[in-house]
Design goal:
heterodimer, A: six-stranded mixed β-sheet, five-stranded antiparallel β-sheet, 11 strands, about 0% helix, about 55% strand, B: about 110 residues, mainly beta, four-stranded antiparallel β-sheet, globular
Chain lengths: ~110, ~110
């Protein structure tokens, strides 16, 4: 079963525009993480936000977390063609072991 | 992550065959995970291991078994492969001090 649902499923934008992806989840969490996957390859960790944090930045990435609504968003500013990938949110419900439950992903395409 | 390797990278097998997928890591991490990814979906956890003597079932362990031969090696076996086990399989590692996971490049398995 998937913990998270991501919205939109697919997103196409022009280079230089901002991309926003949303993630909703079902249960309480310890932290929420975002990963990127280039076509058919392994996932790469982008950013982690803990349940007591509301916003976090890393380079062109901005993540927000609203635990009352059980939702998170990932904003990529000034997108580049190289940002074309699938983006997944993953939740860690705590309890030890860093077990992650992944969402269904957003496919982002950045066109020149 | 080049420190997490998976073999084979591609495998085609027939229904009923036993197959083993191998994962090795040089990161010195204690925790290792096996996931499967079906087309258009996120990752689902098959098994995870906190150390050599600690192995746990994930969401979808039926039809799979694992072996943690050493801290650095974690193998996934399909005892009798069936077509709906056709998927991308990823190994991942993490350390108890950090929450992010590091993924291997994946194994594309096709069961005919």
């Amino acid at each position: 079963s998937q913990q998270g649902e991501e919205d939109p499923q697919a997103l196409s934008i022009q280079e230089g525009e901002n991309a926003t992806m949303n993630c909703s989840y079902k249960t309480s969490i310890n932290n929420l993480q975002w990963y990127r996957q280039n076509s058919g390859r392994g996932l790469v960790h982008l950013i982690l936000i803990r349940s007591n944090e509301r916003e976090k930045h890393s380079g062109r990435l901005r993540v927000t977390l609203d635990t009352s609504k059980k939702s998170s968003s990932l904003l990529i500013t000034a997108s580049r063609a190289a940002d074309t990938a699938s983006y997944f949110c993953a939740t860690d419900a705590g309890g030890g072991g860093n077990k992650l439950t992944f969402g269904t992903g957003t496919q982002l395409k950045v066109e020149l | 992550d080049a420190d997490v390797t998976q073999t084979p990278r591609n495998r085609i097998t027939k229904t009923g065959k036993r197959i083993m997928l191998e994962c090795s890591q040089t990161k010195g991490h204690d925790r290792m995970y096996w996931y499967r990814q079906d087309p258009g979906l996120g990752l689902q956890l098959i098994y995870y291991s906190f150390d050599v003597k600690d192995i746990n079932k994930g969401e979808i362990s039926d039809g799979y078994s694992v072996s943690r031969q050493a801290q650095a090696k974690f193998s996934l076996s399909l005892e009798s492969a069936i077509p709906n086990q056709t998927a991308l399989y990823f190994c991942a590692t993490s350390d108890f001090r950090v929450d992010e996971q590091f993924f291997g490049p994946g194994t594309r398995l096709t069961v005919l």
